[in-house]
Automatic annotation (TrEMBL):
One of its GO terms (molecular function) is metal ion binding. PANTHER family: ACETYLORNITHINE DEACETYLASE, ARGE_DAPE-RELATED DEACYLASE. It is an enzyme of class 3 (hydrolase). Its EC number is 3.4.17.11. InterPro entries: ArgE/DapE_CS, Bact_exopeptidase_dim_dom, Peptidase_M20, Peptidase_M20_dimer, Peptidase_M20A. Pfam families: M20_dimer, Peptidase_M20. Its cofactor is Zn(2+). This is Glutamate carboxypeptidase. Keywords: Carboxypeptidase, Hydrolase, Metal-binding, Protease, Signal, Zinc. The keyword Ribonucleoprotein does not apply. Residues 1-20 form the signal peptide. It comes from the Bacteria.
Amino acid sequence: MRTLATALALLTLTAVPVAAQGLSKAEKVIDRTVDAEFERSVALLARLVDQNSGTLNLDGVTRVGEMMRAELEPLGFTISWKPMGAVQRAGHLIAVHKGKPGGKRILLIGHLDTVFELSSPFQKFVRTGDKAEGPGAGDDKGGMVVIVSALRAMQAAGTLKGANIEIVLTGDEEDAGSPLSVSRADLIAAGKRADVALDFEGLVIDGGKDMGSIARRSVTDWRITASGKTGHSSLIFTSQFGDGAINELARILAAFRKELPEPNLTFNAGVIAGGARAEIDESGNAKAGGKTNIIAATAVATGDFRTLSVEQTERVRAKMEAIVAAHAPGTDARIEFGEGYPAMAPTEGNKALLTALNGVNRDLGLEEMAPLDPLKRGAGDVSFVAHDVDSLAGLGTYSAGDHAPGETVDLASIRRQAKRAAILVTRLSAGRTARK
């Protein structure tokens, strides 16, 4: 891990108290520019939302990438498109802005795709005052609009010119292509080049207050397949036939509930099927058949578990394997794990970034942001770089009902999030946390 935490701490200690300083002249331009271009930002959001970019709509994801290219190139970014046909996905947009040699390298992360495929009836941007509904209006097209709004404001203030910024907009965040070693290679490489990573997925509000995301939990999929000796139901639990596949699976899931719980861990069985024959396909569709008087031969369950560190993932995985291996009489079972998203642990460097953001908040007259409980948000792309670089998440818009028809974005959140991001990036690029 780099020494950004130490640098930020020293800068915070040696600077004049932030509350007494206010915004610099350039930062005041940023503040005014974001407000002046608000309707332009909303218009961009409408265009992005109206272009369907469900993860599996490869053409739609590519078109959204072209729309973002059109916004970023005039700001001085060099754009490249990384096709992901090898993993049956559209690709990623990577934008690079070269600033002052030797300056801090800042990585901005977002994603082009949404969960709403072409088959979804939820397809259009509809504005009602300061709210707007639409597929991906918050997750993550709102976040991409915040990026553009912040960069435009920096350009107007003259602070973009010296900034070293790399933007990675993945095309498959909602359903990553496999293997992840291919689909996330470019993002991981960008993280290794960076000094700071800022993720523009949605802002979380808890208890009426904006929260800072210094941690995100991992997610690992699992599948359990249990088998048993089939026969007449009158012979269940005998030494000859044993417990049957369904009872074996029930034993395993009950043991998970009893033995696995620990802080920051959640685990879930999402789909289950059992009988004389049973299967669950890759899309989560289950089929099963049998009779009440036949001992089940097969039972299958799929689910996931989420942790806050690599160490916790390994520990929980080992516990699950041990539970599965303790077979009931006359049965067998195996557990398989998917690739999964890693955790973004709450490091000291991440905490220092939130401290820097709270310096921006004070100067903008906004409330301080407390660290968000990582149980209150899911996994995300920033976790692929968090092991290598100090990271902060949740810099996108505030929205409600994400991943479901009716997803609604709070348009006013574009303003405060773009101001926060632009001033934070400006200060980090200058190697400080507050105006001297």
